[in-house]
Specification:
The chain has helices at 13-23, 41-54, 65-69, 101-115, 138-152, 167-176, 180-185, 209-227; strands at 4-8, 28-35, 58-62, 120-122, 157-159, 198-199, 202-203. With 228 residues, it is of the alpha/beta class. It has a single domain (4-189), classed as HUPs (Rossmann fold, 3-Layer(aba) Sandwich). The strands form two sheets. The chain has a five-stranded parallel beta sheet, sandwiched between helices. Strands 6-7 form a two-stranded antiparallel sheet. Helix 1 (13-23) packs parallel to helix 6 (167-176), helix 4 crosses helix 5 (138-152) and helix 6 (167-176) crosses helix 8 (209-227). The structure holds zinc ion.
Length: 228
């Protein structure tokens, strides 16, 4: 049975929930965070702060290459295109899609897990809310896991506890794992980097797609809680 885990940690709602989930299941937990061009500094600060609060190591990897590779709405904060609009070259995918991004992140995580002798990688990928991202789907992660293990003679498992959860169910899981307060007070998902507006569901502008998704999930979670 696995005893140690590396959580791919953005400091957002999903990966904070995953971190709580992992801390309740593994003896040793570490986190890695990717610093890439389109991220707000605030996301990195919140990731660092949450890791400190929960007492887990947090290694930050700089991945500037996405500035060169990406051609998306998320890259540039001044870009006003709807991130859910169609990708210009791949009409089936949202404009925010960055090819091979998760493949790259998970490859780095897999290498770092070997360096730190961690036998499991936990990611918050989810195919429910943003089903437009093909690299958030289970068959992709399973095949990458197999390829990376073959390529380094290792046996590291990928776990993704949120894969089929709605945002409301993710709030419920955060509560169950004892990290709901941290999700609300510290996790950051707002695309506009807003931290000075507190809503029932946490901090953010309240208008961007990430805030709207989170707010909608919170409403459903409250409704679910009241029905029980
Ligand atoms: Zn927002």
């Amino acid at each position: 049975m696995s005893q140690s885990a590396l959580v791919v940690f953005s400091g957002g709602q999903d990966s904070t929930t995953c971190l709580g989930w992992a801390l309740n299941r593994f003896d040793r937990v570490e986190t890695i965070t990717f610093d890439y061009a389109q991220r707000h500094r605030i996301e990195l600060q919140q990731a660092r702060a949450i890791a400190e609060k929960l007492g887990v190591p947090n290694e930050i990897f700089r991945t500037d290459i996405f500035a060169q590779l990406a051609d998306t709405a998320l890259l540039d904060a001044t870009d006003t295109r709807d991130i859910n609009a169609a990708h210009h070259a791949k009409p089936n995918l949202p404009a925010s899609f960055v090819p091979n991004r998760n493949a790259f992140f998970f490859t780095v995580a897999h290498a770092y897990a070997q360096k730190r002798a961690l036998d499991t990688i936990v990611t918050g990928i989810n195919q429910t809310d943003y089903s437009g991202y093909p690299d958030c789907r289970e068959p992709f992660v399973q095949s990458l896991e197999q390829a990376l293990n073959l390529g380094s003679e290792s046996e590291i498992r990928f776990l993704y506890p949120l894969i089929r959860l709605s945002k409301a169910e993710t709030f419920a899981l955060a509560e169950k794992e004892g990290v709901l307060d941290i999700v609300l007070e510290m996790s950051h998902t707002c695309y506009n980097g807003v931290r000075d507006k507190r809503h029932d569901w946490g901090y953010g502008c309240g208008k961007c797609p990430a805030c709207r998704l989170r707010a909608k999930g919170w409403e459903e979670y409250i409704r679910m809680s009241n029905e029980q």
